[in-house]
Design a protein that fits this description.
The chain has 10 helices and 20 strands. It is of the alpha+beta class. It has a domain of 247 residues: FAD/NAD(P)-binding domain (3-Layer(bba) Sandwich), CATH 3.50.50.60. A hairpin with a 4-residue loop joins strand 9 and strand 10. Helix 1 packs parallel to helix 8, helix 8 runs antiparallel to helix 9 and helix 9 runs antiparallel to helix 10. It is globular and about 65 Å long. It starts with a strand and ends with a helix.
């Protein structure tokens, strides 16, 4: 039986734990934050992400707790919030799944953590990895608290500023794309039943997505600014001021915009590890290997795809015979995943660049259509 350590219990890490444990591996997961401590408000899951969640056996519970929709609205940043067009969105997961689904991030995290544990993975929260030492046949890992373990494979799913990535000698740092995003989490007005996007106005994009029967997240994208000196109340006032420029359903959203704790602000960042995603028996997935701004809503989906492709690649050839080595398997994984992840990242960044440059000739629908066609294919 192959032994696997997953570093990080976010979307990609939890999915990897489920896939490997369901495939018969012995799986340990360490997560530095306490159980239930999940950053972020909501997430949009495109159909290809839902396809992976179905493969992981959690689709029914995800469907119960999320909010699915099949259309996308485009509204004008005018005093009426005029609906310009309502279009059918691409069903990238297939005709039997919604085109998209909004979910509360903490709810999705809890579903994935429970599924990993039910599959047999041992998940430890509030535990840091402190060391990695490799030889030809295994990886020794040290953890906070003085514990240790030895594994056949270590999966670094510890995010955009991955400790694992640095520990194996990969010098890759994210860069700002020049945009910042205000996000809020709050009640869902009856008028919000899908994602609507407003291009222009006080920001580059303003939008919202239902995340459940009684919740949504909404966002406004602006030029990246240093907002670190603002108090929570000042952040709320900035968000309310920007939201005053958007109408239609935004009028109802703004009425409930009263809690400073419901607001967060981050910059769009990006990177792609353009080469092998592993060193020896340690491999990176998700944001540790590739990170894209949310302009095509594919960050979580690409991490999910990494997880199941990695499990399929490794478990399909394990135990290793004379004709296969772990290095060859992990190289094959990168070869399979890198072109798709890189294309998604580049498209996400390109859309943002067009907006920053106010490019009137930008073909945003065409590019988004090409991304949808790409991710509609099996990963």
């Amino acid at each position: 039986m192959i032994s696997v350590l997953v570093v990080g219990a976010g979307i990609a890490g939890s999915a990897a734990a489920i896939a490997f444990a369901r495939g018969g591996a012995s799986v340990d997961v360490v997560e530095s934050t306490p159980r239930g401590h999940v950053l972020g408000s909501g997430i949009t899951l495109q159909g290809n992400a839902l396809r992976v969640l179905r493969e992981l056996g959690v689709w029914e519970v995800v469907q119960k707790h999320g909010y699915g929709f099949d259309t996308l609205g485009i509204r004008a940043p005018d005093p009426q919030g005029t609906l310009l067009v309502e279009m059918n969105d691409a069903r990238t997961g297939g005709p039997d799944l919604p085109a998209g689904m909004g979910m509360e991030r903490p709810v999705l995290a809890a579903i994935l953590h429970e599924a990993a544990e039910n599959a047999g993975a041992k998940v430890r929260f509030g535990v840091d990895i402190t060391s990695l030492t490799q030889d030809a046949s295994s990886v020794a890992a040290g953890f906070s608290g003085g514990t240790s373990g030895r594994y056949d494979l270590v999966i670094g799913a510890d995010g955009v500023r991955s400790w694992t990535r640095a520990a194996i000698g990969i010098d890759l740092k994210p860069r700002s794309t020049g945009m910042g995003i205000w996000r809020l989490f709050g009640p869902r007005p009856d008028s919000v039943t899908r994602t609507d996007l407003y291009y222009g106005g006080a920001g580059y994009i303003a939008g919202y997505c239902p995340t459940g029967e009684n919740s949504l997240y909404a966002y406004i994208v602006e030029d990246a600014q240093d907002r670190t000196g603002l108090t929570p109340q000042q952040r709320l006032e900035v968000m309310r001021g920007l939201a005053e420029n958007y109408h239609g359903p935004w009028d109802a959203i703004r009425e409930d915009l009263v809690d400073p704790a419901s607001i967060n602000y981050t910059w769009f960042e990006t990177h792609v590890l353009d080469g092998p995603w592993h060193r020896g028996r340690v491999v990176l997935i998700g944001d540790a290997a590739h990170c894209c701004p949310p302009t095509v809503a594919q960050g979580g989906a690409q991490g999910l795809e990494d997880a199941i492709v990695l499990a399929e690649t490794v478990l399909g050839s394990y135990p290793l015979g004379d004709d296969a080595s772990m290095d060859e398997l992990l190289t094959a994984f990168t070869v399979r995943r890198l072109p798709r992840a890189r294309a998604v990242v580049e498209a996400s960044v390109q859309i943002g660049t067009w907006m920053l440059e106010h490019d009137v000739d930008a073909d945003v629908p065409g590019l988004m259509g090409r991304v949808a066609a790409l991710v509609s294919e099996a990963p």
